[in-house]
Design brief:
There is one protein chain. This protein is α+β, with helices and mostly antiparallel strands. Among the domains are: 69-159 and 174-198, Beta-Lactamase (2-Layer Sandwich); 515-662, Heat Shock Protein 90, CATH 3.30.565.10. It has 17 helices and 18 strands. It has helices at residues 2-13, 15-81, 83-91, 96-102, 125-132, 145-151, 155-159, 203-213, 258-266, 307-338, 340-357, 374-473, 481-506, 520-533, 555-572, 630-640, 668-677; strands at 111-116, 137-143, 161-163, 168-170, 173-183, 189-198, 225-231, 234-238, 271-277, 280-290, 296-305, 515-517, 538-545, 551-553, 576-587, 593-602, 644-650, 654-662. A five-stranded antiparallel β-sheet has the order 8-7-11-10-9. The protein has a five-stranded mixed β-sheet with strand order 13-15-16-18-17, covered by helices on one side. Strands 1-6-5-2 form a four-stranded antiparallel β-sheet. A hairpin with a 4-residue loop joins strand 3 (161-163) and strand 4. Helix 2 crosses helix 8. The protein is flat. The two termini are 65 Å apart. The relative contact order is 0.05.
Length: 678
């Protein structure tokens, strides 16, 4: 690894090796181009030659099959001309069928039958007319096990082929069949000779064809020439081995690939290409086998192993590669030795450049070359440039020192100006916030003053009419005393509300009466008011009142806050749902009570996160019919009571407002000192 890193660094940094690479690149590119062209031409030529060869082999195999079928017909003619056949017909024509079966082996066929012309109906319709016309027929045919059994009893068992990896036995048989018509002296069809060969498991037949197609010495070493007969897509007779490496067994009972099956069996085309034959790649050619109706019933295949051909091709490439590497080595060595005088001056110049980069005062000097040599001229120019550069660097250093002093002065002045600007911006932001708040409060004051005036006038009329009704009723007023008391109490509440609005808008003023009392009764009263105001709504108000501590509060203001929060919850739930009001003691870290907490929880639409910081601002609202004053007034009342209000909300789940009320209202000084301590 270190050796590789060392030489890699040399090639990347040293001129000698980089120049060696540059001079070798044209040679390498030329040689690579030649290699590519050679590979392309040889591969294309070899591949085309291989395909043409296997196609020719397929033609030879097909001709061999035709020769075998011709011999098969000649055998039937020999039977018809034989003395035994003529004697048998003359003496005992009824036993001619059994006689023919007994002579099948003698004439080299698997089955032999002779039957009179009256039984021509046992043959397919397309075969009858040619026989009547006196034409011999030789063809391929697929027979079922029943048909084979009818011809010869043991023929069906000989045709059985177990399909590998499928646990199925193929019982059909592929036969080469010949029909020979015999006529009497009157020219009438009298006898039909029917004979043929069963091609299933006929290893001698395919071996014979293979020896004709692939004579010894025509294939590369270790290659295997194969011939196969297919019935449909099943190999019924083949010398393709089950193990192509060890040339073991025969792949009878295996199927052809889907690609070949579609092309040859379904489309009826001749297929010539490389194909995966059972367990190895073969240069292959397939041709359809047709029956007497011109239907494709099988295939004839020839092919040989692809790997020996590829191996021979790769061997040639390796030999070519070694020759190229040797050529590169020799040319590189010659370039390196021839350029040695050129490398040394360049390396010396490079060394001086590196020293100068590390601020060392170095010069190239004389290189021992002719003064008019280009490198000698370059060295002198470079030394002159270094002298000029040294002078310029000194001048730049002096200017830099002066510039640095000026920058320090300007930076200090800019820092002071920036600090002053930041303070002015902060002050401006504070002033802007105060002006904005004052504008809101001024608008709120004007609005609440008008509201209080408009509310107080009808309130005074209502109060006067109540007193008049009480006077007119006299003693009967006791019958509606509770109702009149409730009306008077609500009128008093209306006045307190208008007074609270005025107090909030004026930022101070007359304080309402502060009393020391429990919060639970006030909560119950607020719930009663909310329930009476939402009778038409489908809202369930649930209370969990556990507070025991008394706090300093203005009862009317707290009632206003609670009613406002509960009504907001009802509106958030669209007047339908569950509203929970809770109270509990507010405890410090040591568990001592410091006040009471009141929470109002709804299960409505919730508040978006970006709106949580704005809901207590005056005039901010997300409801069309809202004014944006409810929560602003609520916040002002709670702050005036020395308490706090917090909100928790999840969009789509609901909102919880929590009031924190202290036992004793803190003064402004106490609040300020507490904030300083925190």
């Amino acid at each position: 690894m270190k050796w590789f890193t060392k030489w890699r660094q040399r090639f990347r940094t040293m001129v000698r090796y980089r120049l060696l690479v540059l001079t070798s690149v044209p040679i390498i590119i030329t040689l690579l181009a030649l290699i590519a062209l050679t590979m392309y031409w040889t591969l294309a030529y070899s591949w085309k030659s291989a395909l043409a060869g296997v196609n020719a082999d397929l033609a030879v195999a097909s001709n061999s099959m035709e020769v075998l079928q011709r011999e098969q017909r000649l055998q039937l003619n020999a039977i018809a001309d034989s003395y035994d056949f003529q004697i048998q017909i003359e003496r005992d024509p009824k036993r001619i069928f059994s006689w023919a079966q007994s002579r099948a082996d003698k004439y080299g066929v698997d089955f032999l039958a002779v039957y009179p012309a009256s039984q021509i109906d046992r043959l397919p319709l397309t075969l009858r007319q040619p026989l009547i016309e006196g034409r011999e027929r030789t063809f391929f045919q697929v027979m079922s096990d029943i048909e084979l059994e009818a011809i010869t009893p043991d023929l069906s068992s000989r045709a059985e082929i177990p399909l590998l990896n499928e646990q199925v036995i193929e019982s059909r048989g592929l036969i080469s069949r010949s029909l020979l018509p015999l006529f009497n002296e009157a020219g009438e069809l009298e006898w039909i000779i029917d004979g043929g060969i069963l091609l299933n498991n006929s290893t001698e037949l395919v071996d014979r064809i293979r020896d004709l197609v692939f004579p010894e010495g025509t294939l590369p070493d270790a290659s295997v020439g194969t011939v196969t007969l297919f019935m449909d897509d099943i190999r019924v007779s083949t010398n393709v081995p089950l193990d192509s490496d060890n040339k073991f067994g025969r792949a009878i009972g295996t199927r052809v690939s889907d690609e070949v099956r579609k092309s040859v069996l379904e489309n009826g085309d001749v297929w010539v290409n490389r194909a995966y034959v059972y367990d190895a790649w073969y240069i292959s050619a397939y041709k359809p086998i047709r029956d007497f109706n011109n239907r494709v019933i099988g295939m004839l295949y020839t092919g040989y192993l692809e790997w020996p051909l590829i191996s021979r091709y790769l061997t040639n490439l390796v030999e070519l590669g070694f020759g190229i590497l040797a050529t590169l080595f020799v040319t590189g060595f010659l370039v390196y030795r021839g350029a040695k005088d050129l490398f040394r001056p360049i390396e010396r110049i490079h060394r001086v450049v590196r020293l100068v980069r590390f601020d060392q005062d170095a010069r190239i000097g004389k290189l021992g070359l002719d003064p008019q040599h280009e490198l000698a001229i370059l060295a002198r120019q470079f030394d002159t440039m270094l002298d000029q550069l040294k002078q310029q660097n000194e001048a730049i250093r002096q200017n830099a020192l002066e510039l640095e002093d000026k920058v320090k002065e300007r930076t200090a002045s800019l820092h002071e100006t920036t600090e002053e600007l930041r303070q002015n911006i902060t002050l401006l932001e504070q002033t802007r916030s105060k002006l904005l708040l004052n504008e809101k409060l001024a608008a709120l004051g004007e609005l609440t003053a008008g509201i209080a005036h408009e509310i107080n006038n009808p309130t005074a009329v209502i109060l006067g009419n109540i007193e008049l009704m009480e006077y007119e009723l006299g003693k009967n007023a006791t019958l509606v005393s509770e109702e009149m008391s409730a009306v008077l109490e609500q009128i008093d509440r209306i006045r307190n509300i208008t007074r609270s609005l005025l107090q909030y808008s004026r930022q101070g003023g007359v304080q309402d009466e502060i009393t020391w009392q429990h919060v639970n009764p006030v909560i119950e009263e607020s719930v009663t008011l909310v329930r009476s105001g939402t009778k038409k709504s489908d809202v369930e108000v649930v209370t969990e009142l556990n507070a025991k501590c008394c706090v300093e509060i203005n009862r009317h203001q707290l009632l206003q806050v609670l009613v406002n929060l509960q009504m907001n919850g009802v509106h958030a739930m669209n007047d339908r749902g569950k509203l929970v009001v809770r109270s509990s003691d507010w405890l410090d870290e040591n568990g001592n009570p410091i006040g009471a907490t009141i929470s109002v929880q709804d299960f409505g639409c919730g508040i978006a996160n970006e709106n949580l910081t704005k809901i207590f601002d005056p005039f901010f609202t997300t409801r069309r019919s809202g004014t944006g004053l409810g929560l602003a007034v609520t916040h002002g009342i709670v702050s005036g009571l020395g308490g706090e209000i917090k909100v928790e909300s999840e969009l789509g789940e609901g909102t919880t407002f929590t009031l924190y009320l202290r036992e004793k209202i803190q003064t402004d000084d106490e609040i300020t000192s507490l904030q300083v301590m925190e």
